[in-house]
Structures are given as structure tokens and as C-alpha cells.
Specification:
By secondary structure, the chain is an all-alpha fold. Helices cover about 70% and strands about 0% of the residues. It has helices at about 1-30, 35-45, 60-65, 75-85, 100-135, 140-155, 155-170, 190-230, 235-240, 245-255, 260-265, 275-280, 290-295, 300-330. α6 packs across α8 (about 190-230). The longest helix has about 40 residues, at about 190-230. It is globular and about 90 Å long.
């Protein structure tokens, strides 16, 4: 296992380089870079002549090219970026004029909160629900819950978000929840218990939108995995020995049924960058998803590459952790 992990870590290096290299070249090849956008602002900034655009001298243009580092070939800029990344130096944002690491860190709390909450709630609800559907496979509960789950799964997040706001956030019917944000205006004056309650109150609607897709997928994964295990010979043997259903299902069958589910736990690292542009825009959440979108529009290369670096690192480490969990849950697996 140790040799396998070392091999996986070594293979992760060229994979990471490939991801960042392709991303770096694509964003630099896209039209409308930071220099073009800066020049546009400078040309339109001379409002003293009736709103006509002003000319930008070659000296200013050369200064901008050097300021943004575009006086070097693209391959040199990529290797310079790798060198800076090795020191955890993500550079400075072109749009915000602040260190990239500070900008990303400021968006982390919102996305991380929703990522952790949705991960925990999804597993707490989906595993028991999937087991119950498997035990009652083909029955009314399984069929009705299955229809409901697939209907929810088919609803686009933007439609669900608008529906929740219109119905439950004072849009036209009930004013039960806030329309957006993550905390109340008087949040700082609340007690610790009050702060927790206020956060939970603001999380309800956007959290439903975050969970709805993975909720159905995980429930059906647990159900199908449990059904396969229930049909196994050793389960029939356990029943023939007179063991009760609860003991058979929850002691003997559940552990093996959780193997496909447990291997997906390696993806928990993705909660650090959990973000959705649609959900964050609808509910006025200043998170990673909105940051990534605005950075792409502004051609903020350093922020885009910073997000790419962190997300690819989390993905690669998550895959390795999934393999480790697989071996822990099922000792019969031995990676060579």
C-alpha cells in the first residue's frame, strides 16, 4: 500500500502540471485580457471632451505590458508562476489590486460553510433513506420516494432557487426566510447560541439548492448497493440461521453496502471550494463560485490560476484518500 501511495503521489505531479498548463495557456489565449480592459478604461476615462475616448500613448502601453508581466513569452510566464506557487505566492489580483491569497481566503468561509453543512446533512439523510428504500424495494415507499427524488433531481438549481424565494422568502406568499445573505444586520450583538441560530436560519433555502442534486445521487447509490448485498449468498445464510432482519440488514449487509459510498468520502476536500454561481447570485452569497465567474469575466489571470491550483490539488488528494478509505473499509483490496 505504501508503494502504491508513493506511485500515486508521483503520478499526481504530471497530472497537476497538465491541468495548470492547459488552463494557463487557454486563459492567456482568450481575447480581452487585462491589458485590453485597462486600456479601455483609460481611453474612456477622459470625459473632459464630451465623453470621447482618449488616445493612449505607446509609453503607457509598454508600461502596462511590463506591469502585468506580458513582456515575457508565455512559457516563461508559466514557469515563473510555478516558481512563485512553490513559495505559495499566488501573485496580485489585477481586478482587486490585492494579494490573490487574501481574496480567496475572504471567500472561503461562505463556501466552506455551505460545503461542510451540505456534506454532513446529505450523508445523514441519504444513507438511512437509501437503506430503507432497499429494504422496501418495489413497495409503495420505494416507488413514491423514488418519484419524488427524481422530480427534485430534474429541477434546475436556478428554478428551484427562484421558487423558494417566491414562496418562502417574502416574494409573493410566505415571509418565513431571508431573501439572501448569511447573517442578520445585528449578528454581532447576538449571543453565541443566537449567532448559530441566525446562521442556520439564513442557510435553509440556499442549502436546499446546494443539496438537491447530490441528495438524489447518493440515496440511489446506497439503495442499489444495499440491494446487491441483500441478494448475496451470505445474507441468505444469515437469514437461514434465524437472525432477525435488523441484525442482518444493519450489521451484516450495511457495512459491505457502504463500500461504494465510503470511497466517495475522499471527495470531502472539495467542500473547501464548494461554490455555485447560480445559487450565490440568487441568494447574494459572496463565495468562491461568484469569485471564479467574475475573475473569468475580468480576465483576472492570477485569481483564476489560484483557484485552479487549489481545486486541482484538492481533487488529486481526494482521489488518493478515496483509495485509502477503500482499503480500510474492504481489507480484501490490496493495491500493488
Amino acid at each position: 500500500m505504501f508503494v502504491y501511495l508513493i506511485r500515486r503521489l508521483l503520478l499526481a505531479i504530471p497530472t497537476f502540471l497538465g491541468i495548470t498548463l492547459v488552463t494557463f495557456f487557454i486563459i492567456n489565449a482568450a481575447p480581452g485580457g487585462p491589458i485590453e480592459q485597462k486600456l479601455q478604461k483609460l481611453r474612456m476615462g477622459g470625459g473632459g471632451d464630451g465623453g470621447k475616448s482618449t488616445q493612449v500613448s505607446q509609453e503607457i502601453l509598454d508600461g502596462l505590458v511590463k506591469q502585468y508581466g506580458f513582456d515575457k513569452p508565455i512559457h516563461e510566464r508559466y514557469f515563473l508562476w510555478l516558481k512563485n506557487i512553490s513559495r505559495l505566492d499566488f501573485g496580485e489580483s489585477f481586478a482587486y489590486q490585492e494579494p490573490v491569497i487574501d481574496i480567496i481566503s475572504s471567500k472561503f468561509p461562505v463556501s466552506l460553510s455551505f460545503g461542510v453543512a451540505s456534506l454532513i446533512l446529505t450523508y445523514l439523510v441519504c444513507i438511512p433513506l437509501g437503506v430503507k428504500k432497499a429494504i422496501n424495494a418495489g413497495g409503495p415507499f420505494d416507488q413514491i420516494s423514488g418519484v419524488i427524488l427524481y422530480i427534485l433531481y430534474s429541477i434546475p438549481p436556478i428554478v428551484l432557487g427562484i421558487f423558494l424565494i417566491v414562496w418562502f422568502a417574502g416574494g409573493s406568499y410566505f415571509d418565513w426566510f431571508p431573501i439572501g445573505g448569511v447573517k442578520a444586520d445585528d449578528y454581532d450583538s447576538l449571543t453565541t447560541l443566537g449567532k448559530i441560530g441566525d446562521r442556520a436560519y439564513h442557510f435553509v433555502l440556499p442549502l436546499i439548492c446546494y443539496m438537491i442534486g447530490s441528495f438524489t445521487e447518493l440515496t440511489m447509490l446506497v439503495r442499489n448497493s444495499m440491494l446487491d448485498v441483500i441478494k448475496s449468498d451470505y445474507i441468505r445464510t444469515a437469514r437461514s440461521k434465524g437472525l432477525g432482519d435488523n441484525l442482518v440488514y444493519y450489521k451484516h449487509a450495511l457495512r459491505n453496502a457502504m463500500i461504494p459510498v465510503a470511497t466517495g468520502l475522499g471527495g470531502f476536500l472539495r467542500v473547501f471550494l464548494a461554490g455555485s454561481l447560480i445559487i450565490e447570485t440568487l441568494f447574494n452569497l459572496d463565495g468562491i463560485g461568484l469569485l471564479g465567474y467574475t475573475s473569468i469575466l475580468a480576465r483576472d489571470y492570477n485569481v483564476i490560476m489560484g483557484l485552479t491550483f487549489i481545486s486541482s490539488l484538492m481533487l488529486l488528494l481526494g482521489n488518493i484518500i478515496s483509495d485509502v478509505i477503500y482499503v480500510i473499509v474492504d481489507p480484501r483490496i490490496d493495491f500493488k
